[in-house]
């Protein structure tokens, strides 16, 4: 049995839930550098896009990156 790479775990998570954020990657998968794993997936030919999502914090609004896979039509 082979151990899944972090990039493959990220891809599986995106396919199961629809998208992933850095906080989800850290909490659910133990992945500290999500953007690097997304780059790895893109280099492997996966169509991953980044959406910038506004969120409210106690200090006001800020923006986070949410990654999702784009399916070819």
Itemize the secondary structure elements and their pairings.
Layout (H helix, E strand, L loop, with lengths): L5 H12 L2 E2 H8 L4 H10 L4 E10 L2 E10 L4
Antiparallel strand pairs: 1-3, 2-3
Structure description:
The protein has 73 residues and is α+β, with helices and mostly antiparallel strands. Helix content is 41%, strand content 30%. The protein has helices at residues 6-17, 22-29, 34-43; strands at 20-21, 48-57, 60-69. The model has no long low-confidence stretch (mean pLDDT 93).
Order of helices and strands: HEHHEE
Question: What does the main sheet amount to?
Answer: 3 strands, antiparallel
The gross shape turns out to be: globular
Give the neighbour order of strands across the main sheet.
Answer: 1-3-2
Spans of at least 5 consecutive residues whose pLDDT stays below 50 are none
Give the N-terminus to C-terminus distance in angstroms. 34 Å
What is the share of helical residues? 40-55%
Total helical elements = 3
How large a portion of the residues is in β-strands, by DSSP E?
A: 25-35%
- The Cα radius of gyration reads 13 Å
Tally the beta strands.
3
Q: Calculate the mean pLDDT score and round it.
A: 93
Indicate the structural class.
Answer: alpha+beta
Summarize the structure.
The protein is α+β, with helices and mostly antiparallel strands. It is 41% helix and 30% strand.
Features:
3 strands; 3 helices
